[in-house]
Amino acid sequence: MGGHSVMLAILSFIAGVSLAHAQEAVPGEYIVKLKSMASPSGVLNKMQGKMSLKGSFPRMNALHVSLKGAANESAAFEDLVNDPDVEYVEPNFILKKSDFNSNEGLGSPAQVFAEGEAQQLEQYSASSVSFSQSGAAVRVVEAWAAESTSTVRPIVAIIDTGLDKTHPVFVNSNATWNNVREIPNNGIDDDYNGYVDDVSGWNFIDNSPNYFDDDGHGTHVAGIIVGTGLNILATPITENAKMRIMALKFLDANGSGTTSNAIRAIYYAANNGAQVINNSWGGGSYSRSLHEALTYAYTNRMFIASAAGNNNKNNDSTSMYPANYDVPSNVSVAATTDYDFLATFSNYGARTVHIASPGLMILSTLPNNRTGTMSGTSMATPFVSGMAALALREAPQLTGYQVKNLMLASVDNIAGLLNKVSTSGRINALNLINQAKAQSSTSATQPSYSPSYQAEVRSSASDATPPTGCGLITAAALRGPGHGGGAADAMNGFGVLAGLMLIPVIVWAVLRQRSLAGAGEDPTSRRRFERFRMDSDIRVMVGNRELVGSLKTISLGGASFCADEALEQGGIITMKISSPNGKDMVEVQGQVVWNEANQSYGVQFAGAERGTLAMIQQWTKGLMKA
Ligand code: CA
Fold this sequence. Notes:
With 626 residues, the protein is α/β, with parallel strands linked by helices. Among the domains are: 126-438, CATH 3.40.50.200; 521-619, Beta Barrel (Thrombin, subunit H), CATH 2.40.10. It contains 16 helices and 25 strands. The longest helix is centred in the first third of the chain and has 18 residues, at 3-20. Mean pLDDT is 76; it is low at 1-21, 102-107, 456-529 and 595-600. The chain binds calcium ion. Calcium ion binds next to loops.
């Protein structure tokens, strides 16, 4: 079995999961990805009379179309799917805001206060310097005090229901981003970015510069980001806010939006200077196009914070997107209470959810000069994205990936979060700012990322067989970085299981050395390689820890090995592989993926260098085929 089919086995499983939790989509609308050599006009010509164009994504070579006008919609759909110029077709899924109130049908927000009213209540009085999460030692006040006099104001894109930029909190702190290259109201796209008069954000629903918040969710999120936990209502920020907020409206007055508009907003954020993306929304269906858009944000070095969701579900087994995309700079955020308990509504996941942040009864801004409390992972997420902006203010050269690692390494470990989030921790603002200040002269780095898109292997799933391993386990838990991993921790829950049993780890490289003259994005054009038995040590760096495992098989397409400790889903590891004679060693970076069906980990190479591959090829001469 080649490494490629190992990959297929794993990916086809994931594709199955996404199908099992299919969510609502816009009737008749699809996102159509064209092969790299195909032209949109060619596809449009072939589909004339059966398909109308709703929009296009030039950087993705993808179209947003409707088949509503077709005489036979399902026949038109088949034509589209079978078009040799088409790489994939997926529904235009509907995504929803992630606040608890709306999911419960209670309407949102939970409590609303008129101007000045909240300040009169004891719990939100002027004597309180932080929002309602003061019971949790997030150390916001100390973090703000520790900040340097940096004048850098990172841009945070709030992809949400819009913003009431006239709220005094934002006016007094000059918080909204201004597109200085655009002249207001002249009807001209002055900066040639594709949007006319986009002076401070955009409304992707009606394609206008008016992103007024007709729901309240986005304005609430924005207040949390600008204050990142400080009580900006009792003690208004009168100087410039420490970050700028870019309002990108794609959720409507009901808190619903489409994947096509989410993609547009992500590209807008990436192309117009934002360094941080806040995603307080999501859905259960895997969308490859949304995955591609966030991968684009990653290549632009952005930090991404995504709400884990409010269904009290385990995201390790029930996917939530965008939180579950393994884009290396994406942080999936759970919500905790004032006293560091996981909020009853919050999703969790020892592998897929990274960090917790306060998200219960958070007081923040609402449209029309009001304030109010809201609960949800939607409220926990902006705290994380706001903190990322403050970290970037101290070390603006860092990539989002580096900020994520600093953030995950600076959490406070909370016993109740063990097996709930990968770090077992809740955000600590002071630790993060101190860590960021220490990184002010660190070079920007991030691993290359080759996404394991799920849709592309569905048609090839039949040739996939489960990988052979080193024994199966039924459950595993991560002992998070900095958590100690001592005997007491190992005895807790599944830690001991993971320690005693061997975990098969399948490693493969996705080789994307396809020439332009080749078959474009067609996965069948990929090279396949024979696997060979190989008995040597493999050392895996997970953060600062080094694990030693034994290599079982290897090919140019990948390798499998056993390790005696659980690895973090989505985490980047560095692998050092010894040659059979022990004389040579190669080093490759990869990203950990969990395969539920086979209860095993996979590591997808983030990008192996040619020299590394040549060396592996040299080693495999004279080895036995597996
Ligand atoms: Ca413009």
